Amino acid sequence: MFYLPLLPTEKKMYQRVVTRIMKNIEMTLEGTILTMKIDISKNFGPSKSGKSITIASTEGNISVPDAEDVKIGLNVYKSNK
Fold it and tell me: Is the pTM of this model over 0.85?
């Protein structure tokens, strides 16, 4: 886990970049704004049911960085047709 300053002039504000066990999701929290970045060109193969192709997943519910009481669970997929 590491911290990146948002702007050189704003030394008290930091953006937290969190590495968790997730597939193709980059999650950042700036103040109270949660941003998730996903590359929709990725493909992690068929879902467990085989009905869809997994593009990204948090692989279950996880805590939001710096807001441990807030949880998120996300699956991004496309049809297997």
Answer: no
**Torsion over CA of 45, 56, 68 and 28, rounded to 10 degrees?**
150
- How many domains are contained in the chain? 1
Going through 1-81 in order, the beta strands assigned E by DSSP cover: 2-5, 14-18, 26-30, 33-37, 52-57, 62-64, 67-72, 75-79
Domain of 43, in residue numbers: 2-79
Q: Considering only residues 31 and 13, tell me which one the structure prediction assigns the higher pLDDT.
A: 31
State how far the Cα of 69 lies from the Cα of 45, in Å rounded to an integer: 32
Q: How far is CA 25 from the centre of its chain?
A: 4
pLDDT tens column, 35-54? 999 999 999 999 888 999 99
Closest C-alpha among 42, 56, 54 to residue 78 = 54
